[in-house]
Amino acid sequence: MHVLVNAAMSVDGKLATYRREQLRISGDADFARVDRRRAEADAVVVGVGTVLADDPSLLRFDRERRSEIETTGVPARVVADSQGRTPLDAALFSGDAPIYLLTSEATPPERRDAFRDAGAQVIVAGTDRVDLTDAFDTLEHEGIERLLVEGGGELIFSCFEANLVDELSVYIGSLIIGGRDAPTLADGNGFLGSFPELTLRRVERLDDGVVLRWRVENEG
Ligand SMILES: NC(=O)C1=CN([C@@H]2O[C@H](COP(=O)(O)OP(=O)(O)OC[C@H]3O[C@@H](n4cnc5c(N)ncnc54)[C@H](OP(=O)(O)O)[C@@H]3O)[C@@H](O)[C@H]2O)C=CC1
Ligand SMILES: Nc1nc(O)c(N)c(N[C@@H]2O[C@H](COP(=O)(O)O)[C@@H](O)[C@H]2O)n1
């Protein structure tokens, strides 16, 4: 499986304000670039924090790009949600794209059934928190080869921590958001001593910002 993390952040590294409300950081050209990345993906994944904050549908993608790469259908939508906090009326449950709920044993069986009834395929990996390595393996067995991780900061950190990321692209918008409690590109507990190693591959000016793309030098 190839895992690309893509997000938009301010100059000071924030994904949103301290209120954790959805914020438009990308300009039109960058949103068009994101649509192309989604079109190239088999699935797009977000954390439940993003679902609760943004209620994304994740259905926007460049259909022409998708047909150019001869991929049919709609990219699947995936949520990492250890305790089953995703609302059953979330926008993710609308539309035809397949939905995967990655969860843990902490979600009661009846709640898992409710997600199935709402149309999701439920993947249980981990005891208290989603074990992303196991969950991504299961997605791969389901035929997902190209996975786009959109955030937020907690999920992105965990993907790096589990050594699951192959590429990172970040749009840096020309604004300062500030706030010690605002989500950043990689939150979690933070690394100490051993940091993920990145190689800068591309720098592109877009809208009033810049897109940077790195390859991640994974261990092993
Ligand atoms: N600018 C941008 O490009 C983007 C911005 N955002 C913004 O980011 C903010 C949300 O980010 P954030 O609060 O970090 O939330 P996330 O979307 O990263 O979701 C985090 C939650 O996911 C659940 N989760 C399940 N398994 C794992 C795991 N293994 N590792 C980490 N998390 C896991 C956890 O909740 P639980 O334990 O209950 O399962 C956790 O609290 C919003 O403000 C949103 O607008 C989001 C995406 C892109
Ligand atoms: N690339 C990017 N730039 C921004 O400025 C953003 N706010 C986001 N947010 C992500 O897009 C999701 C919403 O997508 P849809 O409206 O459903 O198409 C949101 O949940 C974040 O993951 N991304």
UniProtKB/TrEMBL annotation:
Catalytic activity reads:
2,5-diamino-6-(1-D-ribitylamino)pyrimidin-4(3H)-one 5'-phosphate + NAD(+) = 2,5-diamino-6-(1-D-ribosylamino)pyrimidin-4(3H)-one 5'-phosphate + NADH + H(+); 2,5-diamino-6-(1-D-ribitylamino)pyrimidin-4(3H)-one 5'-phosphate + NADP(+) = 2,5-diamino-6-(1-D-ribosylamino)pyrimidin-4(3H)-one 5'-phosphate + NADPH + H(+)
Q: Any idea which UniProt keywords this protein has?
A: NADP, Oxidoreductase, Riboflavin biosynthesis
Note whether Iron occurs among the keywords. no
Catalytic activity, EC: 1.1.1.302
- Pfam families attached here? RibD_C (PF01872)
**Residues of the Bacterial bifunctional deaminase-reductase C-terminal domain:** 2-212
**Which pathway does the UniProt entry assign to this protein?**
Cofactor biosynthesis; riboflavin biosynthesis
The GO terms this record gives for MF are:
5-amino-6-(5-phosphoribosylamino)uracil reductase activity; NADP binding
Gene Ontology biological process terms, A to Z: riboflavin biosynthetic process
Q: Does the keyword Cell membrane apply?
A: no
- NCBIfam families to which the protein is assigned, alphabetical: rib_reduct_arch, ribD_Cterm
Can you name this protein?
Answer: 2,5-diamino-6-(ribosylamino)-4(3H)-pyrimidinone 5'-phosphate reductase
At the highest ranks, the source species' classification is:
Archaea, Methanobacteriati, Methanobacteriota, Stenosarchaea group, Halobacteria
